Amino acid sequence: MKTDFFELPDFNRMLVVSVFVHLLFLTLVMFLPKPALHPKVVVPAFMVNLIELPSSKTNRPSGGDILPRKKVKAVKPPRQPPAVKQEIPPPVAKKTAAVKALIHKLDQLNGETGKAPEPAASPLLQELNKLAQLAPPAAKKTAVKKKKRTASKVLR
User: Is 109 within 8 Å of 117 (Cβ atoms)?
Assistant: First the structure.
């Protein structure tokens, strides 16, 4: 007896066919006419009734034409001159006797040494300054070999 196995389906082909069938179905559904279940009813916010007035010549004056109205000129109030802006001087800082004494002492210190006094350095800062002055050791240069990429490795 010989056992026959079914052929295994090609999953890639099944996937492609499935995608195209679904796209065809969605395209057909998109272009089907849409039924109008409930038509929209526009409800007006307010109603306007137009009334026609009868035209009669009895309402007009005897001259036939309507008399022009007299124009009344509006009285303009007198114009007031614009308010003058007063210039405010910028505030000036007042120097007190204590501030003047401090400035005088600082000027004397700067005059004696030629520069501002340095704060006392801690032992940690002194060590760091010594380390910064030392020349760093020359770094060893190692040549980096470039590997060529083959087509089989690029495609993976």
Answer: yes
The residue length of the chain stands at 156
**pTM score of the predicted model:** 0.22
Beta-carbon count within 10 A of 2 CB: 3
DSSP-derived secondary structure for the chain = --PPPPPPP-HHHHHHHHHHHHHHHHHHHHHSPPP-SS---PPPS------PPPP-GGGS-TTSSPPPPPP-PPPPPPPPPPPPPPPPPPP-PPPPHHHHHHHHHHHHHHHHHSSPPPPPPPHHHHHHHHHHHSPPPPPPP-PPPPPPPPHHHHH-
pLDDT for 147: 65
Token code pair at residue 69: 């109205």
pLDDT along the chain (156 residues), means of 10: 69 93 95 80 85 72 60 76 76 81 87 59 84 72 64 57
- Alpha carbon 156 to its chain's center: 43
- Signed CA dihedral, 123, 128, 133, 139: sign only: positive
